[in-house]
Predict the structure.
Amino acid sequence: MTAGPNRPIYLDCHATTPVDPRVLAAMRPWWEENFANPGSVEHAMGRAAEEAVEQARALIAELIGAEAREIVLTSGATEANNLAIKGAARFAASQGSERRRIVTVATEHKCVLESVKALADEGFEPVILPVDGNGLLDLGALRAAVDGRTLLVSVMAVNNEIGVIQDLAAIGTIAKEAGALFHTDAAQAAGRIPLDVEEIRADLLSLSGHKVYGPKGIGALYVRRRPRVRLAPLFSGGGQERGLRSGTLPAPLVVGFGEACRIAAIEGMLDAGRIAGQRDRFLEALRAAVPGVAMNAPDAPRVAGNASIALPGGVSAQAIMAAAPMLCVSTGSACSSAEVEPSHVLKAIGLDESRARATLRIGIGRFTSPADVDQAAAMLGRAWGAAVSGTGRAAE
């Protein structure tokens, strides 16, 4: 969103991204001209919708180096994560497997952590590993935790708050050496860093449409075909998506997701270079406006658009946001930001409560302009100055 008089500046691209106009154009005919159910293959409109869905599935698969038939369409990454973790565990249990350990990381998205913890009630053993001050998993600790009892290792590719990139290839290798499945939540990684399911040895990988400039309400789970990964479905229905995810497919959303993945495959790395420049410009301007501002997890590899920043002076991030209402940033995950307690991610990397409460998550994206980042830094500077001086609301 371009900055302008009385228009908000959007720097929250980890929460969601704007729909690319090209994606919107691709979706529109499937609402207005051919609204058929892609399962209605008895007639021409239904067959056309089915073909469009399958073309989109192929584009989603291509982004991660998979086969189209390995893509299971879902409502989003939360559902994909639940299906991967609970589905793998329940299928293994139904086959009498003695592997009961599920290993994950303290900084995972809440839907992963809660899925893993919920399986304890079904006789599984959750193991939640810590991270270092840069949010990175210690591979030695992972190797010690993964053994012949381990069914599944689930590690997020890119953290949704601090933007750090885990060493997926090394993690996948450790899981494979122990005979365990490897799942990664790649919602924040797709289109931002190169992803290849063969290179990282993933068995299961979750994606989300609205993190790659596509629509909300659509996602996907990659499920390896060779060697075949078997899952138990989460709910019953008409047997769509190879019986793993029943329900009518929303053809416009699927088409939009496919188009977003097509664009990301072509332009993602070009985007990353431009976005990194915008982030650096923003940080330079912010450091001039707010002396002492610090980056969280400063030494970790991170995606181009992320900046997790801690403001000095004992001022809470909530107060800063209230003082700059036309600036759209966040204090952490959109799924956790309503909570009173500081983010579990910031706690996990060792931030004390004061610094955690002073942290803002900045997410710069494809459509962020130089004017946006300049104005955002100035707005934060004014808001911070007003807060530390006790004058209250900053002028816009």
Q: What stands out?
A: The longest strand covers residues 101-105.
